[in-house]
């Protein structure tokens, strides 16, 4: 009699989970025990659990085993946003806005409506943007320590599109992309979409484990390294000059690309020079105006080595060509007249104040955060499973992001990422205190 296939075993366990026979929180047998019980190979048992995880039914916790996931759907990379009670706070996503930004937009649109050639806003701009618009962004980037020619700046519809065109143009399916073991969730989605082998780099309190990265690059042919050296998402670190130089040296020795994400870099004014300045011949710097101006503006950019500019321009041509003329006019106008610089100053002060609120509300809990960022990484107690905690908080009207949304590789952290930017300032403290009471009340 042939042993059951992994699909058959996975289907049986999935049916038991959905029927409630295996309730949320049940610890499933270790891989070897499942293999003995079912008469299958250990490798097949591993495929069973991988299949159940892909269906969103189980979650693996390093050193503790595989557990049936809470069915609420409030955890993971695509959590439910339909709360069962009136919303108290959205701590799952950062959408910072300042008072008066709507009026800023009205003024900008009125000014555009009376400009000399308003019809130009209806014409298709070249892929990557017009030279004069690229020049505005190049001048703006000087404040971040990046000295790039306008020809090396490509305008995109946000950071995510910038990442997409870099990977589309400069990688091939099967290439190895190294990324921090905890990182921006969008890179995981893009790696899957482009068929890349995403290799996690262990993290330390002060940055990626560069010795591990070096060993990875020596053992495998890494095509690119994705990194956030300035105000990392979700851990908030800022790599010092020595670590940046080491990372650039590892990439240069391995002959691989560096993809530097500077989305949150505006929050740290004293950072060492970007990797783009240390290894300009191999670094693509991507960022946007999503967190310093508005998430809905969808205006970003990629600063690329000159030898890759044509390939990335071609990738833009085959997708969306870049940014619409109206968005580009608003964004470059705000950069040129100082509105973006003013908003960035306001964001830094606002983020620092929100971090102070979070430190007071969460005092004594295991948290990691940059002192002027919009995120807190909250590690949970051993008995507190992130999927269950997210469901408990949803009953309190609070949305959060669970740590597995940021996990690169199989390891799933027992943690929450709290986004601080969206609630009104006066509501953030009460929401965090409510969160703390709910988490503390979860029994062992």
From TrEMBL:
Q: Which UniProt keywords apply?
A: DNA-binding, Pyridoxal phosphate, Transcription, Transcription regulation
Tell whether Cytoplasm is among the UniProt keywords: no
Keyword Transcription regulation annotated: yes
Q: Which Pfam families match?
A: Aminotran_1_2, GntR
Q: Which residue stretches, if any, does this entry annotate as coiled coil? A: none
CDD domains per UniProt: AAT_like, WHTH_GntR
Q: Where is the HTH gntR-type domain?
A: 3-71
SMART domains listed in its UniProt record: HTH_GNTR
Q: Name one GO molecular function term.
A: DNA-binding transcription factor activity
- Report the Gene3D superfamilies cross-referenced here: Type I PLP-dependent aspartate aminotransferase-like (Major domain), Winged helix-like DNA-binding domain superfamily/Winged helix DNA-binding domain
> Of which family is this protein a member?
In the C-terminal section; belongs to the class-I pyridoxal-phosphate-dependent aminotransferase family.
This protein is called what?
Transcriptional regulator, GntR family
Organism equals Nonomuraea pusilla
């Amino acid at each position: 009699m042939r042993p059951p296939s992994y699909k058959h075993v996975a289907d049986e366990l999935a049916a038991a989970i959905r029927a409630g026979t295996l309730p949320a929180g049940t610890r499933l047998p270790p891989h070897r025990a499942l293999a003995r019980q079912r008469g299958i190979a250990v490798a097949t048992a591993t495929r069973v659990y991988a299949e159940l995880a892909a269906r969103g039914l189980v979650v693996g916790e390093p050193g503790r085993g595989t557990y049936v996931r809470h069915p609420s759907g409030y955890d993971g990379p695509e959590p439910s946003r339909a709360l069962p009670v009136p919303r108290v706070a959205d701590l799952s996503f950062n959408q910072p806005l300042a008072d008066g930004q709507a009026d800023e937009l009205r003024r900008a649109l009125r000014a555009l409506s009376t400009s000399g050639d308003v019809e130009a806003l209806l014409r298709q701009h070249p892929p990557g943007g017009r030279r004069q618009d690229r020049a505005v962004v190049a001048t703006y980037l000087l404040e971040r320590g990046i000295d790039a020619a306008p020809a090396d700046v490509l305008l995109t519809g946000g950071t995510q599109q910038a990442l997409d065109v870099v990977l589309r143009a400069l990688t091939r399916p099967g290439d190895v992309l190294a990324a921090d073991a905890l990182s921006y969730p969008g890179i995981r989605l893009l790696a899957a979409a482009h068929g890349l082998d995403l290799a996690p780099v262990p993290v330390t309190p002060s940055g990626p484990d560069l010795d591990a990265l070096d060993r990875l690059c020596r053992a495998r042919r890494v095509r690119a390294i994705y990194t956030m050296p300035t105000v990392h998402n979700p851990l908030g670190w800022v790599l010092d000059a020595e670590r940046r130089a080491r990372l650039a040296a590892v990439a240069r020795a391995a002959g691989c690309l560096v993809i530097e994400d500077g989305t949150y870099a505006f929050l740290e004014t004293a950072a060492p020079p970007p990797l783009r300045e240390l290894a300009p011949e191999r670094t693509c710097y991507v960022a946007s105006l999503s967190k310093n101006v508005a998430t809905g503006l969808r205006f970003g950019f990629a600063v690329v080595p000159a030898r890759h500019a044509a390939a990335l321009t071609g990738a833009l041509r085959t997708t969306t060509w870049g940014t619409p003329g109206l968005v580009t006019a608003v964004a470059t106008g705000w950069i040129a007249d100082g509105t973006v610089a003013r908003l960035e100053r306001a964001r830094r002060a606002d983020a620092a104040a929100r971090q102070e609120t979070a430190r007071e509300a969460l005092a004594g809990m295991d948290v990691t955060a940059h002192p002027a960022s919009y995120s807190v990484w909250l590690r949970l107690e051993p008995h507190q499973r992130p999927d269950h905690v997210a469901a408990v908080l949803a009953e309190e009207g609070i949305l959060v992001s669970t740590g597995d949304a940021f996990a690169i590789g199989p390891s799933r952290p027992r943690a929450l990422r709290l986004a601080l930017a969206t609630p009104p300032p006066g509501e953030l403290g009460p929401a965090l205190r409510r969160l703390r009471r709910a988490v503390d009340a979860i029994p062992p």
